[in-house]
Amino acid sequence: MAKNERAFAIHAAPKVIWAILRAEIQEGIEAGQVSVEHEESPRRIAIWVRMGRGLVVRYDYRLSVQPEHTEVAVEVTATGLRHSISNIVSLGRSMTPYLVAVTQGLANLKDEAEREAARQRGPSG
The CATH number of the domain where 11 resides is what? Predict the structure, then answer.
């Protein structure tokens, strides 16, 4: 795993995870903050998130089916003048806030997808 990447094992089908992820992305699109660069449903989606003037962050989500779970990996790349200045001031640690945020986002995605997968299986599953 790259230093600017985070990954979670989620015990849900890719279609369940994808539906939740895509709904969140759609909210960002409707708010005018997110644009989709590339999409291969339900395996990969790369998005750009505008975080204000001079800062854009790219999130590249990849879903891969493993024997007992779906791995969701996200690579994070920040660009823009604000990022460049922040990287200098923070001695190369400017990615930390985005990585913390994506880790929390993956934890939330895991919780929601696993709850939905359990609901779909029903009480006997």
Answer: 3.30.530.20
